[in-house]
Amino acid sequence: MKINVTSGITAMLTGALLLSACGGGENPENGEEDDENSGENAQEENNEIESSGGSDTIKIGYNNWAENVASSNMWKILLEEEGYKVELVNLEKAALFSGVADGELDIGMEVWIPHTDKSYVDKYGEDFTIQEPWYENTQLGLTVPAYMEEVNSIDDLNNHTEELDGNIVGIEPGASLMELTEDVIGHYELDYELQPSSEQAMMTELDQAYQNEEPIVTTLWSPHWAFSEYDLKYLEDPDNVYGEADDIVYITKEGFEDENKEVVTWMNNWQFDDDSLGSLMATINEMDDPEAGAEAWIEENRDLVNEWIQ
């Protein structure tokens, strides 16, 4: 069932605040400064959105995350096959939410609810509509390769500080997964530093360590193609600092559904599981070209996508 934010999202989004693997949130140590910078960055990026594309173009905002890149390119191709003009706009998380809320973007492809993106929904949610989930039961956490048999829980990490060089390999600074991981380090009193990098750089380090069966601990989330390429395990989080599972939905600007009923109908029919999304991400990763990989996957899964577009 579609959720209209203006009529019910506040009640649905109660509980502990989690900040997204897929975007930044307020830093507890310098929250006012971060919030101001986030707002300035969002405004700068929204100015760029406003100056691009045409009024008859569907603008899809997305972040640089494997599942987000994959789904956005897939829908670009599918909608263009149906005769629509589509523009993909790559943005930071705050700019994506404000862009949809301001009406400069038509669709925000990936939003985690009810926990992870709660801060953004609380801030911007009165001005957009949350649509159907397209992936259910996400996960965030720390992972290690399965060959690290003695490391199974976050509590185990302090027994292996030396072999891991006291280092957790992370992603982009400011991403909420990073902020959550800082909370985890403090909560479990880990003698570790969180190394900021990027998803690509993290995966490069993971690949190098994995090929040599060396120890490594990384921040990761599901869905992600890494789990189809490597034998990894999440470390147990006894106190549930990373929080409960979310669903991934997409959001649309006010009025979009009235003008594009069939697009919303098609996208609300869309549902990924681990196998279908994993194969899409893996195809894109193998081809090293998001659009070409998405196109190849669509051709291989035409029966599935035809179930959505009917």
What does this structure look like?
Helix 3 links the parallel strand 1 and strand 2 (85-90). The protein has two domains: 5-138 and 245-308, 3-Layer(aba) Sandwich (D-Maltodextrin-Binding Protein, domain 2); 139-234, D-Maltodextrin-Binding Protein, domain 2, CATH 3.40.190.100. Helix 3 (66-81) packs across helix 11 (274-287). The chain is globular. Mean pLDDT is 86; it is low at 1-38 and 47-54. The protein is an alpha/beta fold and 310 residues long. The protein has helices spanning 5-12, 31-50, 66-81, 93-102, 118-124, 176-187, 199-211, 226-229, 256-259, 261-269, 274-287, 290-300, 302-308, and strands spanning 57-62, 85-90, 107-113, 128-136, 139-145, 167-169, 193-195, 218-222, 232-234, 247-253.
SSE blueprint and pairings:
Layout: H1 5-12, H2 31-50, E1 57-62, H3 66-81, E2 85-90, H4 93-102, E3 107-113, H5 118-124, E4 128-136, E5 139-145, E6 167-169, H6 176-187, E7 193-195, H7 199-211, E8 218-222, H8 226-229, E9 232-234, E10 247-253, H9 256-259, H10 261-269, H11 274-287, H12 290-300, H13 302-308
Parallel strand pairs: 1-2, 1-3, 6-7
Antiparallel strand pairs: 3-10, 4-10, 5-8, 5-9
Helix pairs in contact: 2-4, 3-11, 3-12, 11-12
